[in-house]
Each structure stands twice: as C-alpha cells, then as structure tokens.
Amino acid sequence: MNRWLRASLQAAAGVGLLALVVHLVGTGPFRRALGVFTPDSAVAALVLGAVATSAQALRWRAVAAVRSGGPSRAGDLDDAEEGRPMGAGRAVGECYRAGVLNAVLPGGLAGDVLRAHRARRRGGWWRSATSVGVERLAGTAALLAVGAAVLSVAAGQARGWALALAVAAGVLVVVVTRALVAAPARVHLAVWGWSVLGLAALVALFAVAAAVVSGGSSPGAAGTAVLAVLALLGMSLPVGAGGFGPREALAAAASDAAGTTPAAAVALAAGYGVLAVLSTAPGAVLLLADLAGSSRRGERG
Predict the structure, then answer these.
(1) Could you read off the pLDDT of 272-284 as tens digits, one per residue?
(2) Nearest CA-CA partner of 41 in 167, 209, 207
(3) Coil, strand or helix: which one is 156?
(4) Contact 66/180 with Cβ under 8 angstroms?
C-alpha cells in the first residue's frame, strides 16, 4: 500500500474515533482536558518525559548491543551522520526526535523509522531497524503485562480483557527473548528494568493529568491505574496522531471498570494526551536545530 494512502487511512481512523467519542460524550470533556496546562503539570510532564525517554534510550542501547552481534557495551549504535559511535546522550536525543514525530504524525511510527535510519551502520540499516523494532516490542510487552495485572483485579468483563492482554504479553516476551537469546542475563535485566521504569514514568504522568483535570475527584488509585494502562494501550495503536482517538475511545469503554463516567474518563485520557505531547517538546527543539544546521550547511555548500 502506498505510504501516503496508509497515513491518510490511519489519520482518518483516528478522526473517526474522535468523532464517535464526541458524539457519545460531547465536547465538554475535551474542553476540560485543556485545563491540564498549569506550571506544575508542565514541569512534571517535562521531567517524567525525560525519565521515560532516557529509559527508552538505554533499553535501545541494550538491545542494539546484542543485535549488533557484539558484547553489551557503549558504541554499538552508530551515528550515521556523524560517522562515530553513538553515546547515551545522543541516543536520548534520537528517542526525543522520534517521540515528537510519533506524537504529531499519523500512525505513531514515523519517528522510529527516522531513528533507525539515523542509527544505521554504514552499509545497511537492517540491524538498526530490527533493534528499534525489538526495543519497541519490549516496551509493549511490559505495558501489556502491567495492563493484564491491573485489569485482573477489576470487576466484570475487564477480567476477560486481562486474560487477552496476558496472552499477548506472553507472546511478545517470547519474541523479545528469542531476539536476545545470545545476550547475558544482565542485558535481559537491563531491557526489562528500563521498560518498567519508563512505563512507571508514563503512568505517573497520567496520575498528574488525573489530579489536575479531575479537580480532586479522580476515580481513585485503582481506577486511575486502569485508565492509565488503557490510555497507553490506545496510544500504542498505529491509528491517528498522538494517540488521540483510540486512547479516548478505550478510556470511555473502560469507564465502568474504572469506577467513573465515560465523560470523566475521556477528559482524563485527553488531558494525559496533552501532557504527553508537551513531554516531547525537547525533541521539537532538536529537530528545529537539525533543520537550522542543515540550512547553514546548504548555504555554505
């Protein structure tokens, strides 16, 4: 399928889901979500975003060390533009760039394609692409596992979803483990440890959004955890831009299990989406700096 057609379909699907949510709960929850912007929440978004992005970058380096066929060490990622090994700081920058592109472009994958391209080894990019893919699968596996645990204690039909998530998590864990089969135990611990840390930062960011948007009447710790996990699952689907659409639809569907109303659940999910986009702001600064640098090089050329 033509990539532009695919992107158009993904964007249309996200818009369609948003339209459905608005039809069900109105525009009020989205207006409430805009109130998530406060000085404290902005700082929290940047700090927690930095924790999550750094954890992702270190997980990526751990996976790439194994996928490159060498031991786990710094320098297994190459900087294709600079022609030298990529350090941890540069890896964080690449993940920030990927994050902001994933947040604003349909499908949520364009940034990772760029990340794989910029970190490719000279002569090919297959290993770089598979490293990014395995890294993303590890993060998704951790999310599914936590989602299964959270939903397993929820009431009603949520337990059926918990079983489905547990099975999906098991499949992804097997895939990631086989991809890292040659790695020592410390690399496996690093991959899953960074995954848990990054996920914890994102859940904490959802809690920040819930505290601000709900105005002190949040659905409680258990309900917030349910909505946070499902919001993150919605954002992981390659539909729409920045997760808007599937995130709010899943939150509305899970409102009973979370002990709140669909409108309140949508407001919390949309508020989290706003903070999640804000947390990628350093990536936008880096991309603008890249464009400025390219323009200067072009003028000298």
Answers:
(1) 999 999 999 999 9
(2) 209
(3) coil
(4) yes
Structure-token match 């270190």, residue found: 58
Question: Is the separation of the CB atoms in 140 and 146 below 8 Å?
Answer: no
pTM for the whole structure: 0.88
Angle at the Cα of 223 (from 272 to 22), degrees rounded to 5? Answer: 50
Q: What is the pLDDT of residues 60-78, one digit of tens each?
A: 999 987 755 544 344 456 6
Do 43 and 281 contact (CB within 8 A), yes or no?
Answer: no
Residue spans of the domains in the chain: they are 28-291
Token representation of residue 138: 């590890």
Nearest in space to 275 (alpha carbons), one of 7, 63, 39: 39
CA distance 134 to 66: 11
Residue given tokens 């970058």 in the structure block: 57
Contact yes or no for 240/10 (Cβ under 8 A)? yes
What are the C-alpha distances in Å from 167 to residues 171, 172, 179, 247? 6, 9, 19, 21
Q: CB pairs under 8 A, 24+ apart, for 107-110?
A: 107/6, 107/7, 107/10, 107/238, 107/239, 107/241, 108/235, 108/236, 108/237, 108/238, 108/240, 108/241, 108/242, 108/243, 109/238
